Amino acid sequence: MSLAAAVRGPDLKLSYARARLAEVERMRQVYLAALDGMPQREIANAAHLSQATVHRMILRAKALDLAQDLIEEIALQRFVGQISTEVMLERLRGYENWRPRVVDPVDGVIGEDSRGELEALLDDGLLAEAEVDLVLDAHE
Fold it and tell me: How many whole angstroms separate alpha carbon 68 and alpha carbon 1?
């Protein structure tokens, strides 16, 4: 790895985290506007999006249940410095939308689960193994 790549790596990760948080927040605002009864065309005009994009965002936000924070979002908020590690751990340990790992004896793990989300954040370097363990202990 070149010196330039080593220096830019953390900057790129921080840039990604900020962009992802903005993306989630935009999707949440579109979703909440739709829940409040605002027509999709009006949302599209206000958000400078096409109506088709607004429709897809609403469907995705509903599937993710963006009426509340995501596990990824909480970890990213800590990564960019919006919340402390203590606050992040408190919120993740008390996370109300926890989806347990469901194992089918034939096919293995079915669907997305909260543990898998934590493991992905660990793989991405956004959580430490000890932090994941603390959160898992609170949910098992």
Answer: 39
Matching residue, tokens 């924070």 = 69
Parse the chain into domains and list their residue ranges: 3-64, 71-139
Q: List pLDDT tens digits, range 57-82.
A: 999 998 888 888 999 999 999 999 99
pTM of the model: 0.81
d(CA 114, CA 93): 11
CB 91 within 8 A of CB 74: yes
Cβ(46)–Cβ(56) below 8 Å: no
In one-letter notation, the amino acid at residue 85 is T
Cβ neighbour number for residue 31 with a 10 Å cutoff = 22
